């Protein structure tokens, strides 16, 4: 740990020593484009710009980069939904969903999401631009967004609640500048972005008096919803089952079933058998323990010896290393369809994240090309795929409960979750657990929906899921716009 810390600090010093030119804090470049999406020909404008962040005294302290797509020829703009999009990290730019999911441009990858050359950008015929305008926002120190002065107190940006507070102010200014107050509004966040937008739903209501129609959570984090060690250990199993199934590691009687049917069975085992067994600790009887170990082995393909040695608590890192150890491969963290090759087969965790290296391989050249050559946004400032935002204050994270409170206070607010079965970082079963415990009474359940896909964290990289996931968002938007004159009341 000491060596890792030294390396991290050394890297930070090295990065800081390479000063970069500053962008103007308040500027925009406008370009016009044409797209055919969802069977429609769409003329749109793209606004690639910078908008300031002000402190409480009105001083500019940072500037956020954004890309705003607005369909042209819309007669009544107030009927046109606006989608406000964030990625996660924290510390990640909005690049991922921007050029691989909902936006009008699509990076050049194969149908399963792997890099191909030549790198490039093409039209996205599945974009949701047919039903909504979209703005992609890079929080401070991600993308082209930067703090404007070394003497700015970084704690106003780098923390769960600080992040939510300054972004709510920024969104309010953006909505005002672009005359979108009357538009139905939606937040979409991926990974840590789900923590961000869950908190923003309530913050926008309480501090900006801005009410939303929907929040889309793509591969959600735990949203501050408590899980003790027992729950955390048990909840991993359905993801293990899904990944073992993908890699054809299960026994034939399980492997020959439909994935969704098998996972339903694994979930029932997790809740009704595994969770109580882990909770018993050494108080569990030998017969019950032997049964649980055997069933865990059956659902994961891991050996009974490995499961027993780990007291029924298999970490995700061990699973990524163990599942295909005999084949000489590791599996990816964020998407366990991806394979890695370690320097040695022994050990308890992979040497690197196989999926992330693949994604950076394809996304980095694409986004840099796209801004300069398509959106005409030219700068010598580096686009931070991942930027320096640490130390990050993760305390007092109540974002999941805040989202429930926002829903309770706003009868128009709906939530949709999208998860990939093979995501081992923010797994699909824990995403379901969020919904169950965010609203334990079930009174808000009719306004919550869950969608799952046969891919990983960024499910949209697989073409089949790109098509379906965009259609799910499209239908979510269309179904959550109230009828004219419909009152917001219970």
TrEMBL record:
Cited InterPro entries: AB_hydrolase_fold, Peptidase_S10
Signal peptide: 1-19
Highest taxon above the source species: Bacteria
Cited SUPFAM superfamilies: alpha/beta-Hydrolases (SSF53474)
Keywords linked to the UniProt accession: Carboxypeptidase, Glycoprotein, Hydrolase, Protease, Signal
Keyword Signal: yes
Pfam families found in the cross-reference section: Peptidase_S10
Biological process according to GO: proteolysis
GO molecular function, one term: serine-type carboxypeptidase activity
Annotated TM spans: none
Protein name listed in UniProt: Carboxypeptidase
Source species of the chain: Candidatus Sphingobacterium stercoripullorum
Lineage summary: Bacteria, Pseudomonadati, Bacteroidota, Sphingobacteriia, Sphingobacteriales
């Amino acid at each position: 740990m000491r060596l890792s810390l030294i390396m991290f600090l050394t890297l930070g010093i090295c990065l800081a020593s390479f000063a970069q030119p500053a962008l103007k804090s308040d500027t925009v470049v406008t370009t016009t484009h044409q797209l055919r999406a969802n069977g429609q020909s769409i003329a749109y404008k793209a606004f690639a710009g910078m908008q300031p962040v002000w402190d409480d005294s009105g001083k500019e302290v940072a500037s956020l980069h954004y890309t705003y797509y607005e369909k042209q020829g819309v007669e009544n703009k107030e009927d046109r939904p606006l989608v406000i999009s964030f990625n996660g990290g924290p510390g990640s730019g909005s690049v991922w969903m921007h050029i691989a999911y909902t936006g009008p441009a699509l990076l050049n990858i194969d149908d399963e999401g792997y890099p191909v050359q030549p790198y490039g950008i093409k039209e996205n015929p599945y974009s949701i631009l047919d039903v909504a305008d979209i703005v992609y926002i890079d929080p401070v120190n991600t993308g082209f967004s930067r703090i404007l002065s070394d003497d700015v107190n970084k704690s106003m940006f780098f923390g769960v609640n600080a992040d939510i507070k300054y972004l709510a102010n920024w969104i309010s200014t953006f909505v005002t500048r672009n005359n979108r107050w009357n538009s139905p509004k939606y937040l979409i966040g991926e990974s840590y972005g789900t923590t961000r937008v869950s908190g923003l739903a309530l913050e926008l209501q309480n501090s900006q008096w801005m009410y939303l129609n929907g929040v889309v959570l793509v591969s959600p984090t735990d949203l501050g919803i408590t899980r003790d060690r027992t729950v955390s250990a048990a909840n991993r199993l359905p993801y293990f089952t899904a990944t073992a199934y993908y890699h054809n590691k299960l026994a034939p009687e399980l492997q020959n079933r439909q994935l969704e049917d098998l996972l339903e069975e694994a979930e029932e085992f997790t809740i009704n058998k595994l969770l109580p067994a882990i909770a018993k600790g050494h108080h569990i009887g030998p017969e019950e323990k032997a049964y649980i170990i055997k069933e865990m082995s059956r659902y994961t393909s891991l050996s009974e010896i490995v499961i027993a040695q780990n007291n029924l608590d298999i970490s995700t890192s061990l699973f990524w290393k163990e599942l295909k150890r005999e084949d000489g491969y590791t599996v990816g963290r964020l998407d366990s369809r991806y394979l890695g090759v370690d320097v040695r087969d022994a050990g308890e965790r992979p040497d690197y994240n196989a999926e992330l290296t693949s994604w950076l391989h394809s996304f980095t050249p694409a986004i840099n090309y796209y801004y300069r050559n398509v959106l005409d946004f030219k700068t010598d400032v580096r686009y931070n795929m991942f930027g320096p935002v640490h130390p990050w204050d993760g305390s007092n994270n109540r974002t999941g409960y805040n989202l429930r409170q926002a829903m309770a206070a706003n009868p128009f607010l709906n939530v949709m979750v999208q998860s990939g079965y093979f995501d081992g970082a923010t797994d699909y079963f824990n995403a379901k657990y969020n919904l169950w415990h965010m609203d334990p009474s079930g009174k808000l359940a009719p306004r919550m929906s869950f969608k799952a896909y046969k891919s990983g964290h960024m499910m949209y990289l697989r073409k089949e899921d790109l098509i379906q996931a965009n259609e799910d968002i499209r239908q979510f938007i269309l179904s959550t716009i109230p009828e004219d004159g419909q009152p917001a009341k219970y």
